[in-house]
Amino acid sequence: MASDRVLSYHATGVLDNTQLGLAALLGWVNKTAAFRREGQKGRRVVDVGFFASVVDIGNGLGLALCTDGVGSKVLIAEMLQRYDTIGIDCMAMNVNDAICVGAEPISFLDYIAIERATPSMLEKIAEGLYRGAELAGVTIVGGEISQIPDIIKGRAPGQGVDLVGMCAGIVPLDRIILGKEVTPGDIIVGVRSSGIHSNGFTLARKALFDEGKLKADQYVAELGCTVGEELLRPTHIYVRPVVDLLYRQNVPVRALVHVTSDGFLNLARIEANVGFRLDDLPEPQPIFGLIRRTGSVPAREMYRVFNMGIGFCLILKNEASIISAVKQTFEASHFETHIIGAVIADERKRVVLPKQGLVGEGEEFRES
């Protein structure tokens, strides 16, 4: 039974960027751009804050770099004592960011922080990393295992683990995609997610396990599996169809957006000062409805925190041949696509969800 209290990400203790002091941190980080001058290799050509950054490595090539982790999804793995999928998530969270600048991911590094290393756990994590690398077409070139029991703590003694990765990709400097050419009237194609992916787990766990009193090994008919199995469903990796479109078919894609935390507000990260009207979103997978009901989570919070069924977006010129090429290429990789909306004129870069009665701006959705 859900409680009468409305649940939000903030109520779980997760702070927003302002509360974290992100601006002060970025102030120092951005000063380091001066250490590589114009004409030097390593000069930053894509600013911090986009999905991936790019540095000039000479000969007209850029090195795309990004880093991300699995977050508290590792706690679900711990609950079920199943660690063979979180490596896929770690790979996905990074390579899906790298392709947003038009880069082809080529290599990957991992960092595993662990409370107490066990061969079986490490082997299962490595198995997932391998499977993720296979799906992304990258090589894992190294990593680090850090046993820090005084810092990493699990739900049970000795079970704590954190998993983070870093991806490198290559992109010609004249083919970097930042969304500069996006204009009103462009079409937004959404690619179906596998479910919750690897974002919002603090809110999901609070809603399902604390408020809803569900168990990780509890079978739920509407999910067709246990709660834990659904939450551990690996994040989709969208690399192969995107790279195919960009570098084999030379399809002119105007922007690429990985839908992670902040949900569809990620659309506003592109450089063009435009808005987005998403008026044909498909029904989210059942897990999102279960989270909303058990935690009494408002719609505005659900759409701010979760991908709500769409894991990736492509913004395209409204031409039938381009839209068809994208649809066919993703279908060949067994991904489901939907035309979910269009770009609109709006210098405030708002995201409008008319059917849900929501308007997003900055880091928040509000009721329209």
Task: Describe the model.
With 368 residues, the chain is of the alpha+beta class. The chain has two domains: 140 residues, 2-Layer Sandwich (60s Ribosomal Protein L30, Chain: A); 181 residues, Phosphoribosyl-aminoimidazole Synthetase, Chain A, domain 2 (Alpha-Beta Complex), CATH 3.90.650.10. Helices cover 30% and strands 26% of the residues. It is built from eleven helices and 16 strands. The strands form three sheets. The protein has an eight-stranded mixed beta sheet with strand order 10-12-7-13-11-14-15-16. Helix 6 packs across helix 9. The longest helix is centred in the middle third of the chain and has 18 residues.
Read across the widest sheet, the strand sequence of neighbours is: 10-12-7-13-11-14-15-16
Could you give the order of the helices and strands?
A: HHEEEHHEHEEEHEEHHEEHHEHEEEE
What's the CATH first level of the largest domain? Alpha Beta
Give me the count of strands.
16
Please bin the fraction of helical residues: 25-40%
Enumerate the spans where pLDDT stays under 50 for 5 or more consecutive residues.
none
Provide the gyration radius in Å: 20 Å
Quote the average pLDDT. Answer: 94
Which structural category do the helix and sheet elements fall into? alpha+beta
How many domains, in number, for the residues?
2
- In the CATH hierarchy, the architecture of the largest domain is Alpha-Beta Complex
